[in-house]
Write a structure and sequence with these properties.
The protein is an alpha/beta fold. The chain is built from 15 helices and 13 strands. Pfam families: NMT1 (PF09084).
Amino acid sequence: MPSFMPSHIGPTDHQSHFNRHARIRLSGMVHRAARGLAAALAVTALALTSGCSGSGNTAASSSSSGLRKVTFMLSWAPDTNHIGVYVAKDRGYFAQAGLDVDIIAVSQAGAEQAVQNGQADFALSNLTNVADYSVKGANLTEVLQVQQKPSAIWCALASNTSITRPKDLDGKTFATFGSNEDDAVIKAMIRNDGGQGTFDKVTVGTSTFQTLGSGQADFGGFYATWEGVQAEMNGPQLTCFKEPDYGIPGNADSIGVITSNSTISSDPDLVKAFVQATQRGYEYAYANPDDAASILVAGAADANLDEAFVKKSMNTIVEGQYWGDHDAIVAGTARVGDIDYDGVQKYLDFLSQAGTYTDANGDPVSADPQVKQLATDDYLADPQPASQL
């Protein structure tokens, strides 16, 4: 979902792509996105290419330094969800693993399709996206899941005093990007709060905040760790509802690193090297949020990120323990990156029961996607104390 953030901070715009978790850049700005017209176009292209992506590492090659060149594609403009990759590059974890990693902007078709087609070796995505693509014929796997609990928030402007709880959204207008997933979540939240689950919709133009502020819509969706931080720092003030508080099961925001099944089959050593270096980057960021924020701001200079904002975002992640038990990870008794098989499966089952899945032809899919077939944490390293990173 969009934000109302000044341009020097970053995300102010999202574009319809595949689902609510797929953010892409648009005119230098970023927004949380959903299924829509671009999804149909991406699916058509994916259906044509899912069986012919080559032998795997088409984007990887050797550099003059002797390091293996690898590409990592952003899923939207740089933000704190990507921060572990920037840290791993800056602190030399990739080089120590024999890798020269090029962090590249997301393609118009999306990071998932780029990985599927061999245009990128790895990318940031989430298991909801992987499941959606899998029922349409893609062969993708999440190999590191950084986010361990939902960060989605559904909000109205605090000035709209008619909305104080989800059932108040009945009959109101949702600022949408066209996602069946979002519709299912909102309907369930309203009904679980005693409402009917009926609402109108309007397609967001340039910013959800602007759409709400103009009176065209009454509520929209954001991330607590990004747009929620912006609203806290700079306004506008919001009234927000969290999915777990209103009966949405499992983990809807399983953000992490994906690669193609062909890469896993043809070069498991590459996958292991990249995953473990990236894991170290996220673990360092979790233990050193302010320093990691500075690394992201410098490493993604073109994004013109505001350092105070990025630090606040990282500290929100730490305080909310969005990546897992912070103290245990810092002490080396737990690790960043484990797949939340049970939590994510509960959410995918919810989406399946709501009828959100369709195949490449747009026909309903009856079988629930299975997380154990879509993700693995076999390539992660054992945990280590943050002092040794």
